[in-house]
TrEMBL record:
Keyword DNA repair: no
Role according to the record: Pyridoxal 5'-phosphate (PLP)-binding protein, which is involved in PLP homeostasis.
GO molecular function terms attached to this record: pyridoxal phosphate binding
Keywords recorded for this protein, A-Z: Pyridoxal phosphate
UniProt-recorded name of the protein: Pyridoxal phosphate homeostasis protein
Residue ranges occupied by any Alanine racemase N-terminal domain in the UniProt entry: 8-219
Cofactor(s), names only, from the UniProt record: pyridoxal 5'-phosphate
């Protein structure tokens, strides 16, 4: 891997384009979310100076510490929350982030909607699905997805898509295919899937958002 963040960003984008062409969908490039969690500040600034503006973080407090100052210098950044969220942090999350990828329960849906109304910010939301049936993982079960989606729509959340983190030891192909099928069944357009190890595969399988950390920034601290 090259060590320059700018070079890595260019390489990842190139790999995504190549896979989309290969899959016969050259015009639907997924959005590249650069996952900056636990990365040194200078690497993140390098990405910003290279012109990248879309970033992902998995913890609200850590993200605030980093991005409240950086947003002064780069006001057009777009921040995605990709990690699990406690209901009592919904207020801070809605204030900082532009999109939320990790809705996985009714209580959180209610907390988010209440904060979005209070702050006048109706953020796009993805429901995270636990396709691997892993107990300790975030994400709603396949059985509970329809109920959660119906509730979220009923209270007026802007649910735009589904998100998945496949179990590390599984072939991600089946999880990506399942996510795509579920999204189509429920009339959801966006698919947040693919990380450093499998973003090209995800792009070829119809991801609209890929979340890439180490392939851009190097190993986390
Ligand atoms: C950390 C993280 C990523 C990025 O992982 P890499 O392997 O570094 O690309 C993507 N999605 C989620 C939900 C994450 O927590």
């Amino acid at each position: 891997m090259s060590t320059s963040v700018a070079d890595n960003l260019a390489q990842v984008s190139k790999d995504i384009s190549r896979m989309c062409r290969h899959a016969g969908a050259p015009d639907v490039q997924p959005r590249l979310i650069a996952v900056s969690k636990m990365q040194p500040e200078d690497r993140v600034v390098e990405a910003l100076e290279a012109g990248h503006r879309v970033f992902g973080e998995n913890r609200v407090q850590e993200a605030e510490g980093r991005w409240l100052p950086l947003k002064e210098r780069f006001p057009d950044v777009e921040l995605h929350l990709i990690g699990s969220l406690q209901s009592n942090k919904a207020s801070d999350a809605v204030a900082l982030f532009d999109e939320i990828h990790s809705l996985d329960r009714i209580k959180l849906a209610d907390a988010l909607k209440k904060e979005m109304d209070a702050q006048g910010r109706q953020l796009p939301v993805y429901i995270q699905v636990n396709t691997g049936r892993e107990d300790q993982k975030g994400g709603v079960s396949l059985e509970e997805l329809p109920g959660l989606l119906a509730h979220a729509r009923e209270i007026g959340l802007n649910v735009v898509g589904l998100m998945v983190i496949p179990p590390v030891d599984d072939d991600p192909t089946l999880h990506f295919a399942l996510l795509k099928k579920l999204a189509a069944r429920h009339g959801l357009a966006r698919l947040s899937m693919g990380m450093s190890s499998d973003f090209a595969l995800a792009a070829a399988m119809g991801a609209t958002d890929v979340r890439v950390g180490t392939a851009i920034f190097g190993n986390r601290a």
